[in-house]
Amino acid sequence: MANYDVVVIGSGPAGYVAAIRAAQLGLKTVCIEKEKSKQGTIGLGGTCLNVGCIPSKALLDSTHKYHEAKHDFDIHGISAKDVSLDVPTMIARKDAIVKQLTTGIGGLFKANGVDVMEGAGKVLAGKKVEVTKPDGSVEVLEASNIVIAAGSLPVEIPPAPVDQDVIVDSTGALEFSETPKRLGVIGAGVIGLELGSVWGRLGSEVVLLEALDDFLPAMDKQIAKEAKKILSKQGLDIRLGARVTGTEVKGKEVTVTYSDAEGEKQQVFDKLIVCVGRKPQSQSLLAADSGVSLDERGFIFVNDYCETAVPGVYAIGDVVRGPMLAHKGSEEGVMVAERIVGQKAAMNYETIPGVIYTHPEVAAVGKTEEQLKADGVPYNVGMFPFAASGRAMAANETAGLVKMIAHAETDRILGCHIVGPSAADLVQQVVIAMEFGSSAEDIGLTVFGHPTLSEAVHEAALAVAGHAIHIPNKKKRK
Questions:
Q1: Is 148 part of any known ligand binding site?
Q2: Could you give the domains of the chain?
């Protein structure tokens, strides 16, 4: 029976980072992965790298370049006639990027001395891990510490059973060989908006059916409203309060039945993407006597340091509470590895940024105005539109705004919400500021390069106190 200091179950962004950091700290480490890549090799990198974050961004970038060349070059004086995009070539490029990065993780494991084992891991009592290999053989590992990083799976709904042909999940939506003329998307959340954008740019008539009455309810309402306006103008047909009750596949098309405030309706699509969320991949992961507990939704119970009820057994990433974000899982992996060797590492869950990679991007960190209002926290708001940014004008990227929120008494930054060009990178500046406990004035006193998109963050911070330079300031009520 092999013995390890650390056994990591899952090689996604949480698991592979935890394994590498543990090995860097001198711990004998093995990482177990059960999934296979598209090429049939071990699927290092998990959902994010193989069928999630990375491939979707590759398609988003390809289709944005195509859409820009086809529709937006004229304003720059560039004539680009008969622009076309070959879908199989685009998909092949996406696959090449994924293969390069998954191979890279294998190289990092080798460089750091991390062992890799292919198979399905299961936590047993006494800090043992049972590994069922692809050939059906079973091996049991002994571990001083176990890190569970098994990730998540797409949620399935009975009214729309996935066949990966006409009705697909987010994985299937990355593999279309041609652009569907009529594309339905169940769910207008992050995944639905990104995938809808990919195929909408290539000419699909995209209808998003969202059961909730609010658009992006977790985001600041003002930013969500602006995002919906921009995305609708791009051609995405976003229908709120639309609950899907059934589907019927006939040949190569599907009829979707849904109900909204006006009653029952039907719509026919060539492809239907089901993306109504994800669930923790905790089934068959734990032996009954492992001592590790799940909640009613299948998440593993952990404390603030990702410790389970069993000493030496940790869980990180999508299988535990908190946002299902790759960067959140990665940082939890670092924290756990460092805590195993006795360091006092901790995570600040208040400063985890979230991003929707549409174009323009939507990004946020910290509290929304609605949350602060509900909690009775006094606050001030500063906003700056990209329409007033010289750099945004030069780039023909003037849609959207930056919204900064600071405590009314201490001026400490409580949140920042952005819809606009490079929002994902701009919000990271505020993440850093919040990590250091900065005030809006601190950002206002910082010199920003000109002309840059970053100046929109600077001006929003100045606007918190009514000091914005490049827009009229709203008069403060006495």
A1: no
A2: 3-153+279-347 (3.50.50.60), 167-276 (3.50.50.60), 351-464 (3.30.390.30)
